[in-house]
Automatic annotation (TrEMBL):
Catalyzes the transfer of a dimethylallyl group onto the adenine at position 37 in tRNAs that read codons beginning with uridine, leading to the formation of N6-(dimethylallyl)adenosine (i(6)A). InterPro entries: Dimethylallyltransferase, IPT, P-loop_NTPase. Substrate binds at T13, G14, I15, G16, K17, T18. It is an enzyme of class 2 (transferase). GO terms for biological process: tRNA modification. Keywords: ATP-binding, Magnesium, Nucleotide-binding, Transferase, tRNA processing. The keyword tRNA processing applies. It comes from the Bacteria. Its cofactor is Mg(2+). Belongs to the IPP transferase family. This is tRNA dimethylallyltransferase.
Amino acid sequence: MKKKNLISVVGPTGIGKTRLAIDLAQHFNTEIVSCDSRQFFKEMKIGTASPSQDELAAAPHHFIGNLSVEEYYSIGQYEEDALEKLNELFSMHDTVILVGGSMMYEKAVIEGLHDLPEADAGNQEKLQNILDQEGIEKLQEILKDLDPDYYEVVDIHNHRRLLRAIDIIWQTGRKYSEHIAVSQDGRDFNVIRIGIEASREELYDRINRRVDLMMENGLLDEVKSLEKFKGLTALNTVGYSELFKYFDDEWDLDFAVSEIKKNSRRYAKRQLTWYRKADDIHYLQLGYSQNDFEDLLKWIGEQFQ
């Protein structure tokens, strides 16, 4: 029986994944599943660069603005929901598009999560005390010492990720990066990974300009409206945590915006480190022409099973 095909569009923040995903979805007359964990939240449209209304109308999208920041949503639940959605979509389409820069969420869909132990209450309590007394920087330091490879790619501002990784390392005596490097049983669909690449200078310039555009489009008001939720995990992310410091009078606005740009560039660097380790990504250059796109379609056709 012919396998269904999942085309996964990957790359760093700000590189243009949404446009490519829509171009592919329109060509294959299919739908898009997002694996961008920040775009799940409906209250965070501007700061996460969620697809615009025009983009959402250009192709059906799933897992965009489907949750509230007040809802807790785990990567395990996402894996289950995404696979259920893919099953549904594959009953109607031979090809579906996956897109997003949340590396572990893409991995959850295309390979599956790993059979890791449950959180250890003692470890979690100890780590929470470290976080409360010495700050997230201490957790970053511990993880960097225990597992420098995972430290390079994890969102170091997400304390949940740090707590989880350190807990697993303490429990198993193995690096967290070693645990997640082991592939699970293959999926029953064919995976084709497409990336967009650009020079570091070009990428960073795009990121800086995108942050300026977010500010013009009302990011400050969006963050202000979410200030009462600033303790929630969903809001502990680039573009929001910096502006909360502005509202708390810790930073002035220009400095907060410059920190958003800097932290966005740092996140892009971690994404690039992650994707460089993969040998199954077919790259398209930023600013691709129609001929480049047709060449890509020809290459994709050769990968279909």
